[in-house]
Fold:
Amino acid sequence: MAFLGFLVPLIILVAVFAGMAFKIVKQYEQGLIERFGEYKRTTGPGLQFVMPFVEKIKRVDMREIVVDVPPQEVITKDNVVVTVDAVVYYQAVDPKSLIYNVQNFVLAATKLAQTNLRNVIGDLALDDALTSRDIINTTLRDILDQATDIWGTKVVRVEIQRIDPPADVTQAMHRQMKAERDRRAIVTEAEGEKSSQILKAEGFKAARILEAQG
Structure:
């Protein structure tokens, strides 16, 4: 009985120690081991030993990180105010840099993307901004990728979600597009009528020739 009284607490103590000493790092993570608050080593996925009370582990998700760039007003090169937002896809490549070189990655990445999005759109006229999304995406991706290299991340891609001009500008553009469609319809109709008249004239001419020969 006395032995059981000793064994049960020992088992509990061992279980508690094991829970504190062994940590699981998931397949898509890497772990940073700190000893007394200082970085010591990086571990891969699996069961990792951490010295209780001395070491602790920080896990870093190595999958893509999606950062929403909230809507903001941007002035184009031709002084039109547009509302722009985007999504940026990052991926950690150096977990140590991601943890120790930037305090709040998502916040810092969002502000950086907002600033550079304003700069890129600001260098374009409205028409160019509306028709050059792929170019904007690529340009912004390259800028952000270089700027965030020190944070241990790479920019996988950037997707502009919308570029919305003011309502009055949008209405004017729609009117212009409608006028252009109407103009093309008139030109097409006129060309069709002209072709029809030519065919009729050629048919009449051929008939007269046949009649004269007959």
In short: The longest helix spans residues 167-213. The mean pLDDT is 83.
